[in-house]
Amino acid sequence: MYSNLIITVIYLALMFGAGIFFSRNIKNTADYFLAGRSAPWFWIMGAVWATNIGFLHGYLAHGGAAYEWGLIQSNFEWFQGPFGYILTGIFFIAFYWRAGIYTVPQFLERRYGSGIRVVYSIAWIIIFLVTIAAELYLGGMFLKNILHIPFWPTVFVLTGVVGTYMLLGGLGAAIMMEFVQFVIMMLGTMPLLFILLKMVGGFKGITNVLINQWGVSPQYFTVLPDIHHPYGPGPWIILGQCLVVTIGWCAGHQSMVQRNLGARSLYDSKLGYVVASIPKTLGAFLYIVPMIAAPIVFSRLGIFVEKSDAAYGKLIINLLPAGMLGLFIAGLLSAGLSSIGSVLNSASTMLVKDLYERFLVKGKSDHHYFIAGRIATFGVIIASLLLVPVVLKVYLIMWLEQTLLAMVLGPFMAVLVLAIFWKRANTPGSFAGFLMGGIFAILLQQVFHVNIFFQISWWSFVVTLALTVVISLLTDPPKKEKVEGITWDSNFEAMVGEVIEDRALASAVRVTEIRQRTIKVPPWYLNLKYWATAILLVQIGLLLFFG
Amino acid sequence: MKKTPCLAALLIVLFFPRFSSAQEKFIDVRQNMADNLTGVKTEVKAGDWTAARASFDKAKTIWAQDVKPLITEGVKTDTQFQEYFNRIGEVEANMDAVAAGLDAQKADDIEAKVNAAIWGISHHPRGFDVPKPRYTAWDWVFGLGIGIGFCLFATWFGLYLRRSYYGRYPKARFVKK
């Protein structure tokens, strides 16, 4: 136990020190919020994945949901995740770059006006508070189980460490630490899969025990179950999750987008996002597949599991030897801290950029907003801690978070798609559509008790889309400056120019003449199309095998 | 003066968690029971039957005084307790079997029964009880409609994007240098 505790304390101290170290480079808001736009594609890849995967999305809550409902949970890794990463990477991210923004709400304001920016920002800040509370709760519970230290002091220590390195270091610290954490996570958590599979006799052993001996439903082992499934009906996964929430999450989640906006070029940003879908796919083998085998191990060894969200922690405490467990704790802490840190950074960015600077205190110095960012970070920490007891009551944290996301991302995807592809979409249409779509989603869950978040996201998307179109047609078209440069049929010359300026590829490009223009073409191993095609083929293979 | 609001906020947060302690009680008492039952296994392996008996008695007391009442009361207001309520008989049968094993000092059966008792008070996946897959004619129509519709839409939209892009910017003709 002490060796694990020592490794954990050393790791937390290193994180703490890193924040102080990176804080030396922070001079203005661009450094603090966008890491000075200097990150290469492989940092973006690591940071995007580490942001995505934490206690909540990944090991503890995601793994917990896999324990609860089975292999269906892997559709986030094998189906929707990479689909959303690739589509956002090769498509949506370019529009954000062209708009020259810090936050997603800024993009919405540029296209539609300030009303939707406020509503969207507030909705996301609420989600971020719940997310941080959930991460803190999961982390505290995990460390309580593993190191036998009380829950609340653990939560405060976690908060203190992550708060310090985010408060001091901003996005630069977050991205650099996330890349390190990405490596630690991969190396630290992979051995569990092999240990487990050896224990239960491989995949065949798992299905043999659960289906043949215990009589468990075969739907526990499918990625796309039938339409009657109480948690994730297959067709609704495609409609609500794959087409709406996943893309909306990748294109609309401030933490994910912010990492890409911190890239040194548009091409780095795109490539980082697309390639991040590889560790995303591998993630299922780190925290989904092990959890399918977990019930067998728990019953055989007599391991107590209080709730699904605790299952992953219980598994590793009881299976890994002491030294490896220490590395594992470091890996898992990496995941959790990076996610908390990134969400914290994004929440404070939105508070300052989208609400404080835009509407409350305008025209102050850069230093003023920089300090406001730090105060906002502190405020978010306090508010999140207050929400932890609320999160404790929920039966499955993944369900809570996904339901909240569905309520926001359904309407968001509708207005985003129309923003880019339909020039006629205007301010009143989008604002009313977004607001009514969100209210409709809340009514679906609260009044009509629709608890399948895939359905909530799909129907709120449809309602928002329809309302936005109808109201836009009934009102005046948007002014030219609202659509110029950020819709699909705008001039894309500048985007080609981004590739020309790409320093990331400077050492490995061949100069090619395209008619009158000269651009630098990436070598084959950095070609987006090849990566995207290869990843999609792997996804199809996995779906055919497990679907 | 500036530090006062921050300090006040921290103090509120520090004292707020005390209100949530009831939420953790059901977890803590079951964990305590499981720890004592695990102790039984360890002590039986070490041949210390007296200590094993003492651990078992503690576990049984926790079950009778804390865990079972929480389940029987909780199930009246919260469906999350239903699974534990359904397994009360199973847990008690396993506990009785452990008691019998300890009385007879038969180590062989005890571990399996202790494990079963711990598994009985653990949370079981809800996915285990999902009905087997069933597909009506409507399900096929709906599922295939979405699948085929998605593929057709993706193809049409992809072609639209390609056509509209290259309509404005003629496709690159690469010239080797």
Structure description:
The complex is a heterodimer of chains A (547) and B (177). Chain A is mainly α and 547 residues long. Chain A has helices at 2-22, 29-34, 41-52, 61-69, 75-99, 104-112, 114-147, 151-189, 191-200, 202-213, 234-252, 254-261, 266-275, 277-287, 289-301, 308-319, 322-360, 366-392, 397-421, 427-446, 453-474, 480-483, 493-500, 528-546; strands at 510-514, 517-521. A two-stranded antiparallel ribbon of chain A has the order 1-2. Mean pLDDT of chain A is 79; it is low at 494-518. Chain B contains 7 helices and 1 strand, in the order αααααααβ. Chain B has helices spanning 3-15, 21-45, 49-74, 82-86, 88-104, 107-121, 137-168, and one strand spanning 174-175. Chain B is elongated. In chain B, 22% of the residues are buried. Chains A and B meet through helix 4, helix 11, helix 15, helix 18 and strand 1 of A and helix 1, helix 2, helix 6, helix 7 and strand 1 of B. Strand 1 (510-514) of chain A pairs antiparallel with strand 1 (174-175) of chain B.
